[in-house]
């Protein structure tokens, strides 16, 4: 079967943050490519449903500086930036201990270390941009039920409007999220580690302005992050809370009145932002570290949360996914230029190799941050005090930490606009 006999070139299973961004990047880089996105929820370009949708919910995402540059390249930043709150400083501290460290954007010659954008705005912006892609076929609500490799390409089986349909494609990219049914169905081995914790998410208002500071605070009841979240011109009193708690503490917290929730927060976080005056509706997510050991097979690639689900306090999951998506687009572009099928295993292996070091480093960074700072073990508590003090004392250590947080840890000096502006890679 020739390529033109296939129904489409790439099927993306899942139109969440990862799938939608991939569709946009692919559509821009390879305008002749036929791309089909299959999304289980009834959302489509130029329309998000009012009801809950797993990717574009009430969470906020901290986009690293490197991710901002990717969205600039995709032409999405002018729109995203309208509601993006810059993070000018990250303050890392340990409740009840002396260690603390501050990372400043200025010190790195940048206007911000990253930006906080609410997921719904990210979704609306992505959907608006996808609406302008001519080669895109968007099928929703529809589910990819199964995928099979055939000699001619990939067969993709869909369930759409209660009917079974099938499509053929060169390659299927699985972006169906952390609980990926397709990953399970296809038997990709997953290394799992349950943190035994849940993330409580809410927007909070404080009596003092955040001054564009993001706080990462490690407490004996679990790590918490407070991210500035009311837009570039906001009053500065709204922050997005991510608080990791045991199941028991989470249940206690959910049973509290808003006043009691604010009081508990105050007790754990302290008074750096003045009084907690209001807390919005609370959502919660179980926390696991899931990573596949291999993300490719002939004709299949796993991306986003389907490939790696990280702890959210370090704010690295989507940032890592984005970098992986951009390198996948690059490998597809090179393969297309050589006349190779996009599902060819050597193409997909080349992608996996190009992304592997960044993937491993980011998983290690995010996991060790949680394990070291989330632990009550006395030796570790002292070590982390020393670590935080060390971060403050040693510019190279702080620089390394900041580059991880900015999503620039693994970048080659010449590869990024930031680096063209003078920063060097210190990995
Ligand atoms: C509390 C919290 C805070 C976070 N904060 C940050 C942060 O600050 N910075 C950061 O970088 N990352 C953060 N993350 C991680 C980030 O949210 C994820 O990396 C991102 O949502 C992953 O997107 P995804 O598209 O891979 O998966 P999802 O968002 O789960 O999307 C999967 C999509 O696939 C669809 N789907 C499922 N099954 C099928 C099927 N069979 N067929 C078709 N469609 C299907 C679903 O409907 C959904 O739309 C956070 C995560 C959490 C939980």
Q: Categorize the overall geometry.
A: elongated
Proportion of helical residues: 25-40%
The total of beta strands comes to 21
- Contiguous low-pLDDT stretches (5 residues minimum) are 378-384, 386-391, 411-427
List keywords for this structure.
427 residues, FAD/NAD(P)-binding domain, nine-stranded mixed beta sheet, six-stranded mixed beta sheet, disordered C terminus
Topology:
Elements: E1 10-13, H1 17-29, E2 35-38, E3 60-64, H2 65-73, H3 77-80, E4 85-87, E5 89-94, E6 100-104, E7 114-118, H4 119-130, E8 136-139, E9 142-149, E10 154-160, E11 163-169, E12 171-174, H5 181-185, E13 190-206, E14 213-219, E15 222-228, E16 238-245, H6 247-255, H7 258-269, E17 276-279, E18 283-292, E19 296-297, E20 300-302, E21 308-309, H8 317-337, H9 345-373, H10 378-393, H11 395-405, H12 417-420
Parallel strand pairs: 1-2, 1-12, 2-8, 5-14, 12-20
Antiparallel strand pairs: 3-7, 4-7, 5-6, 9-10, 10-11, 13-16, 13-17, 13-18, 14-15, 15-16, 18-21, 19-20
The protein binds flavin-adenine dinucleotide.
Flavin-adenine dinucleotide (FAD) binds at residues 13-19, 38-41, 54-55, 59, 61-62, 143-144, 175-178, 181-182, 199, 201, 242, 285, 304-306, 312, 315-319, 321.
Task: Walk me through this protein's architecture.
With 427 residues, this protein is an alpha+beta fold. It has one domain: FAD/NAD(P)-binding domain, CATH 3.50.50.60. Helices cover 34% and strands 29% of the residues. The strands form 4 sheets. Strands 5, 6, 13, 14, 15, 16, 17, 18 and 21 form a 9-stranded mixed sheet that branches. It has a 6-stranded mixed sheet with strand order 8-2-1-12-20-19, covered by helices on one side. Strands 3-7-4 form a 3-stranded antiparallel sheet. Strand 10 (154-160) and strand 11 form a beta hairpin. 48% of the residues are buried. Bound molecules: flavin-adenine dinucleotide. The site of flavin-adenine dinucleotide has 38 residues, from helix 1, strand 3, strand 9, helix 5 and strand 13.
């Amino acid at each position: 079967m020739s390529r033109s006999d296939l129904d489409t070139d790439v099927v993306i299973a899942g139109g969440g943050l990862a799938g939608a961004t991939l569709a946009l990047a692919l559509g821009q880089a390879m305008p002749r490519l036929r791309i089909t996105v299959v999304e289980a929820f009834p959302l489509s370009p130029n329309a998000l449903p009012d009801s809950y949708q797993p990717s574009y919910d009430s969470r906020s995402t901290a986009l690293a500086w490197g991710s901002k540059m990717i969205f600039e390249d995709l032409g999405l930043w002018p729109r995203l930036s309208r509601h993006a709150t810059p993070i000018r400083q990250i303050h890392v501290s340990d409740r009840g201990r002396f260690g603390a460290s501050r990372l400043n954007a200025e010190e790195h010659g940048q206007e911000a270390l990253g930006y906080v954008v609410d997921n719904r705005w990210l979704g609306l912006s992505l959907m608006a941009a996808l609406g302008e892609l001519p080669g895109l076929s968007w099928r929703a609500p529809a589910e990819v039920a199964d995928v099979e490799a055939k000699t001619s390409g990939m067969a993709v089986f869909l369930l759409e409007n209660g009917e079974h349909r099938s499509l053929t494609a060169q390659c299927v990219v699985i972006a169906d999220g952390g609980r990926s049914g397709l990953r399970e169905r296809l038997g990709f081995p997953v290394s799992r580690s349950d943190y035994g914790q849940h993330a409580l998410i809410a927007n909070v208002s404080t009596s003092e302005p955040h001054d564009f500071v993001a706080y990462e605070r490690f407490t004996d009841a679990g790590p918490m992050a407070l991210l500035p979240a009311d837009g570039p011109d906001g009053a500065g009193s709204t922050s997005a809370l991510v608080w990791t708690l045991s199941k028991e503490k989470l249940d206690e917290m959910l049973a509290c009145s808003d006043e009691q929730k604010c009081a508990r927060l105050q007790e754990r976080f302290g008074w750096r932002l003045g009084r907690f005056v209001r807390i919005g509706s609370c959502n919660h997510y179980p926390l696991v570290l899931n990573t596949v050991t291999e993300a490719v097979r002939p004709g299949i690639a796993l991306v986003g949360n389907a490939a790696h689900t990280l702890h959210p306090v370090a704010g690295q999951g989507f940032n890592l996914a984005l970098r992986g998506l951009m390198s996948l687009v690059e490998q597809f572009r090179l393969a297309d230029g050589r006349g190779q099928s996009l599902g060819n295993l050597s193409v997909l292996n080349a992608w996996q190799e190009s992304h592997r070091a960044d993937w491993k480093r980011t998983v290690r960074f995010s996991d060790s941050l949680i394990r070291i700072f989330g632990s009550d073990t006395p030796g570790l508590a002292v070590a982390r005090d020393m670590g935080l003090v060390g971060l403050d004392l040693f510019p190279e250590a702080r620089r390394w930490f900041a580059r991880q947080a900015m999503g620039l840890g693994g970048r080659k000096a010449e590869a990024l606009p930031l680096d063209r502006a003078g920063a060097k890679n210190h990995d």
